[in-house]
Amino acid sequence: MQVNNKTMLITGASSGLGRKLAAEAAASGYRLLLAARSEEKLKQLAAELNDRFQVDVFVYRADLSDSKEWRAALQRIVWENQRIDVLINNAGVGYFRHFADTEIEQMETTMRVNSLAAMEAAAAIIPGMLVHGAGHVIMIGSMAGKVATPKAAVYGASKHAIIGFSNGLRQELKPQGIKVTTVNLGPMDTNFFDTADPSGRYRQASANYMLQPEKVASRVIACIGKNKREINMPGWMGIGSKLYQLVPGLAEKLLGSQLSKK
């Protein structure tokens, strides 16, 4: 995909992987639309990227856990931008708790932000892509969507939904020239764990193979315009997920200690 005059929308752009994605995209010359809850952080990021890369950056404050607010923001985004070439659904949240200890509100927030909000963004942006016969939708999924683990049943369900949605969407849109890529990640060194794992136990247990968001962002931006079905990081987890799909009982037995680190 030629980057000149291409516009990209990134959700959850104010911190973590979203911030790195924005920087990598700006370095490549994309015109950026950044959405997140913190307008102040978005404005600071926009100013930084504009200063460093001389690209246009527009911010949209929206709480993706609030359906009405997010849909209103999407209407504004579509109204103010004639064409959006790339959508990266990056916003995500999780709570690593045993299901019996998980509050209903936490379940609703997880499913809303990780699944429904991403689908709503796709529903708003894809019609414009269809008009132009081109575009790329990138869904930030998770290895948890392929291999569910204790204390992440709801989070795994939300990411499993995104993987299933992406697989169906990819087949629907391929004849129309629109690409769909799912990015399935293991633990990554971001502030996601501030909410998901306040104890810090899982972060410490995963320290030896924690992904760096800069590396992930580089892989994601590099895949734009390519027929890339999935990106799985780290690679050994991708292999493990295939084993799990083939022989789940054996995989749970062999990987039991690894799956229970939360």
UniProtKB/TrEMBL annotation:
Record PANTHER family: DEHYDROGENASE/REDUCTASE SDR FAMILY MEMBER 7B, DEHYDROGENASE_REDUCTASE SDR FAMILY MEMBER 7B
The reply on keyword NADP is no
GO CC terms on record? Answer: membrane
**Could you cite one Gene Ontology molecular function of this protein?**
oxidoreductase activity
Q: Enumerate the UniProt keywords alphabetically.
A: Oxidoreductase
Q: What is this protein called?
A: Ketoreductase domain-containing protein
Q: What is the lineage of its organism?
A: Bacteria, Bacillati, Bacillota, Bacilli, Bacillales
Q: Which organism is it from?
A: Terribacillus halophilus
Record-linked PROSITE patterns: ADH_SHORT
Q: Which residues form the Ketoreductase domain?
A: 6-191
InterPro entries, per the entry = KR_dom, NAD(P)-bd_dom_sf, Sc_DH/Rdtase_CS, SDR_fam
The entry's family comment says: Belongs to the short-chain dehydrogenases/reductases (SDR) family.
